[in-house]
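Fill in residues.
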């Protein structure tokens, strides 16, 4: 017998947060989320994305055994901007069992129906900095810190349940050049002077940059990403979640934030040290020793993950993107970084993909979201 239970108690929440580690226990490609982030999912005091939105978590039991989890969320801002009545599903993890899949999806559909929603889609998070998309290709490749792993049966079950294709992404692996592009570096220095921009990380620490330019960063990000599938402007308290993450994980050698003469963010490129191996070894827990592994990965990384890149509208087609990429790549080469991998890039967003054409690359993973009408 299959039973669905809503996450309401601390005990339920701990089970919800820990279940994926159990499901993927023997999978070498799975990278766990930070356990603290999972525990904060339904806590409005820690997860500011909850404010103004609806969110519930569900656990699935079969014959008394925990066999799956899912979260449903209604992003009011997204529905307001698009004029749609969508509920998003997220954090879908379960055994390969049709009855279990059906029960979990039905729980989210009913939740959405109760609030007047007519369509379910996902996997989506609250915004573009959350994990999104279901793996459909590259099952033999390790996930990144910023993406979820899925067994092949997940995408098969989605189609069996009547879901249709929605947004699609690719993830790439890049070949790091042996030597810096000295000519390009020289040109970019001249371009930086002509555009009257300076590198924030050359003058300030990460914490100082976050404090001084945090608001301007999000203005530029919202401007640059406004046309992307499923993008929801990151505003108000929700910005604190992202800033906290950046301040913790970022290594300024591999990121760039360019500030113009008016003190505004003209462009940014965020490439994060990979903490995937550290999270695998600690199973997503920072304590008692996990944080030591994470700190080591941040300070002296061997691998990097491309996270975000954006240019303010007024600076498009000026070549400013080459300035920030030139800085990042010089440090990548100087520090002998072994591997650089992208996180998700929309399959049809050639502008974003072309931003990273500094080196040879190959598509190693694909993922997508699914959508269908609620039929209950």
């Amino acid at each position: 017998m299959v039973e669905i239970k809503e996450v309401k108690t601390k005990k339920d929440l701990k089970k919800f947060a820990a279940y994926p580690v159990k499901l993927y226990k023997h999978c070498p490609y799975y990278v766990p989320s930070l356990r603290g982030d999972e525990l904060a999912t339904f806590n409005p005091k820690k997860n500011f994305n909850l404010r103004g939105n609806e969110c519930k978590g569900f656990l699935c039991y079969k014959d008394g055994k925990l066999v799956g989890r899912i979260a449903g969320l209604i992003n009011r801002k997204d529905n307001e901007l698009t004029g749609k009545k969508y509920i998003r599903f997220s954090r879908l993890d379960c055994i390969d069992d049709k009855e279990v899949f059906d029960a979990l999806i039905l729980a989210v559909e009913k939740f959405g129906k109760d609030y007047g929603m007519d369509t379910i889609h996902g996997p989506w998070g609250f915004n573009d900095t959350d994990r999104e998309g279901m793996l459909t290709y590259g099952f033999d490749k390790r996930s990144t810190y910023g993406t979820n792993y899925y067994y092949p049966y997940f995408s098969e079950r989605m189609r069996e349940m009547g879901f249709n294709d929605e947004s699609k992404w690719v993830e790439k692996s890049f070949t790091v050049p042996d030597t810096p592009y000295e000519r390009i570096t020289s040109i970019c220095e001249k371009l930086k002077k002509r555009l009257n921009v300076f590198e924030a990380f050359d003058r300030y620490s990460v914490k100082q940059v976050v404090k001084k330019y945090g608001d301007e960063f999000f203005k530029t990000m919202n401007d640059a990403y406004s046309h992307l599938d499923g993008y929801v402007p990151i505003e108000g308290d929700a910005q604190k979640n992202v800033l906290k993450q950046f301040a913790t994980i970022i290594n300024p050698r591999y990121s760039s934030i360019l500030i113009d003469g008016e003190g505004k963010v003209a462009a940014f490129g965020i490439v994060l040290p990979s903490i995937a191996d550290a999270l695998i070894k600690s199973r997503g827990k920072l304590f008692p020793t996990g944080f030591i592994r994470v700190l080591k990965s941040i300070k002296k990384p061997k691998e990097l993950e491309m996270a975000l890149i954006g240019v303010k509208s007024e600076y498009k087609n000026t070549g400013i993107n080459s300035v920030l990429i030139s800085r990042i790549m010089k440090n990548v080469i100087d520090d002998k970084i072994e591997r650089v991998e992208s996180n998700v890039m929309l399959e049809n967003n050639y502008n974003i993909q072309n931003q990273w054409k500094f080196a040879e690359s190959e598509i190693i993973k694909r993922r997508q979201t699914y959508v269908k009408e609620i039929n209950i």
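The chain has a mean pLDDT of 92.
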